[in-house]
Design goal:
Order of helices and strands: EEEEHHEEHEEEEEEE
Strand content: 25-35%
Helix content: 10-25%
CATH topology of the largest domain: Immunoglobulin-like
Number of helices: 3
Number of strands: 13
Length: 226
């Protein structure tokens, strides 16, 4: 589903035209168009739907005091929408967002019923991507951190490519591959890449409660081998 600002060159537009629907969302005035078919089966889609359903049931079982705590946490921790603007989530959306990250990516077996009381223990300060020194197709990543990472948390690594040349273009939407290392580790090797091409890499810190830090980007070409 594509979403753009200023639908129909009007901030007040409402309704549908040629399969596009203009409305007001938490991101502001937007226009949407559904892809066909709407319900495509993607890798991991069934798992995420199961977690979403479970999250909804868990939210319903919370006490009002627990829900109020999530609402307060959401108000104090705005997120960025796809346009880079600040956006305040509802209590249930923040509850679901953090728990999905913790359960799906972090491997936690239980939902947290109360919001985190501490900030993430670390974050990327400088990320370096360099041609690997192992086998053909390797890129070695290393980074320095702000704070001190802990083993119970993890670093999420994503990459995009191959590209024909280096560049400074926006690549966040193309970061389709993912790997993880423990939160007390500051390096990783990504293998199996196509030699002779460029790749973008992004790293961020994710704590066991589902809180994430900002992505840091770097690019490199894989090791060619001998």
């Amino acid at each position: 589903m594509a979403t753009v600002k200023g639908p129909f060159i009007s901030l007040e537009a409402r309704g549908s035209l040629s399969g596009m629907t203009a409305s007001i969302s938490v991101a502001g005035p937007v226009i949407r168009r559904k892809n066909a078919p709407v319900y495509r089966v993607r890798a991991g889609q069934s798992k995420i739907r199961s977690i979403l359903g479970y999250s909804s049931r868990q939210w319903g079982s919370l006490t009002q005091a627990q829900r109020d705590a999530w609402i307060a946490y959401a108000n104090d921790n705005p997120v960025q929408n796809k346009f880079g603007d600040p956006m305040t989530l509802s209590g249930i959306n923040m509850f679901t967002k953090l728990n999905i990250v913790a359960v799906d990516k972090g491997g936690s077996g239980a939902f947290q019923t109360t919001p985190p009381s501490t900030e993430p223990a670390s974050a990327v300060l400088v990320l370096t991507a360099a041609t690997g020194v192992g086998i053909a197709g390797d890129v070695d990543l290393s980074w320095t951190e702000v704070g001190t990472g802990v083993a119970a948390d993890f670093w999420e690594i994503r990459w995009a490519g191959p590209f024909q040349s280096p560049g400074k273009l926006e690549v966040y939407s193309k970061l389709a591959n993912t790997s993880y290392v423990a939160g007390n580790v500051l390096l990783a090797t990504i293998g199996g890449l196509d030699v002779g091409f460029w790749y973008w890499f992004a790293v961020r810190y994710v704590d066991q409660y589902g809180q994430t830090t900002n992505w840091h980007l770097a690019q490199a070409t894989p090791f060619i081998g001998v």
